[in-house]
Design brief:
single chain, 179 residues, alpha/beta, 2,3-Dihydroxybiphenyl 1,2-Dioxygenase, domain 1, 4-stranded mixed sheet, 6 helices, 34% helix, elongated
Length: 179
Amino acid sequence: MRTFHDAKAMAKSLRQALAARNIDISHSDGLELVAAGFGLDNWNVLAARIAAEGPAEQAAISFGPANPILRIFDVDKAREFYLDYLGFTLDWEHRFEPNTPLYCQVSRSGLTLHLSEHSGDASPGARVFVRMNGIEAFHKELHAKEYRFLKPGLEDAPWGREVHVTDPFSNRISFCEDK
């Protein structure tokens, strides 16, 4: 998607599109129209904004949250652990065809995990570190569930309070709230 850093290319595209409809505008008029499209008073304001932010390559680089891929071997056990016990929601699931490995996404309160039965996607025994808020309530919620395989503790660490869980496939998730 284009940003204001692409203003000159946008003005050129606009001029070409209008020319195809027999409407001719100057390059500077195209720049003024693009600036107006971004809600700015004129091209000079937009040019100053571009210069202040630096090269487009730097402005275009950004990262979203990581989505760890965790290896699973049994769909029913994975659902029991991630959906029933941890309280995640199943967002989507994918199989290339019936009776092939599952790949799915689960999420809860901004945390997204991918679970995969595909042998090349991940190794069992991975560890994921998750920063969160509300660790005491989360700990209490887990202990209130009737999950017989795990009753994690609430531990103090120099970097915060943690709850560690291990799924049925030896993947470990450390939930941590900063002190």
